[in-house]
Write a structure and sequence with these properties.
This protein has about 160 residues and is α+β, with helices and mostly antiparallel strands. Helices cover about 55% and strands about 15% of the residues. It has helices at about 1-20, 35-55, 65-80, 85-100, 115-125, 125-130; strands at about 60, 105-110, 135-145, 150-155. Strands 1-3-4-2 form a 4-stranded mixed beta sheet, with helices on both faces. Helix 3 (about 65-80) runs antiparallel to helix 4.
Length: about 160
């Protein structure tokens, strides 16, 4: 009985120490990939032309959103898949830096061109709604992984 109790205590202690020492995903450092600036600019232009065709105002580029979008794109590349992980941290950071009242994001992967990415978002009701929502600012991060696969993050806020 004494050995079992000691072993159980040791397991709980190890789990407690291990859980306290884990670095949060938000604080982790990931390799930084190079931005595909031309694709980013083209995609932003396409989104704004679309918004304009609906009578909506163009979205203004935001350096603060670009910083957050780049961090998330690097995270997705490191993970190897799409995600909205840690969105609340990105939204909180943007709100703190810009006084944003509302933040949203679209992500994509595997589309080789800006036009195809836009069409993919347009064909998805949730992504389409985000692109057409009442936002004022945006930024798009587009980067390739080591296999040449494009990853996209677009942040929106107002």
């Amino acid at each position: 009985m004494k050995i079992r109790l000691h072993s159980a205590f040791l397991v709980v202690f190890v789990l407690l120490v291990a859980s306290c020492n884990k670095e949060s995903v938000a604080d982790a450092v990931y390799p930084v990939s190079v931005n595909a600036v031309e694709v980013e600019q083209e995609l932003l232009g396409i989104v704004n032309v679309h918004r304009s065709s609906l009578g909506l105002p163009s979205l203004e580029f935001s350096e603060q959103a670009y910083e957050q979008a780049n961090l998330h794109t690097d995270y997705m590349i490191a993970k190897g898949d799409l995600s909205h992980d840690n969105f609340s941290a990105r939204a909180s950071s943007l709100a703190a830096k810009t006084n944003a009242k509302q933040v949203a994001e679209n992500v994509a992967k595997d589309y080789p061109t800006a036009a195809q990415t836009f069409q993919g978002w347009l064909d998805s009701p949730n992504h389409k709604d985000t692109m057409e929502a009442d936002f004022t600012h945006t930024a798009i991060s587009v980067k390739k992984d080591s296999n040449g696969t494009f990853f996209y993050t677009q942040l929106f806020y107002k």
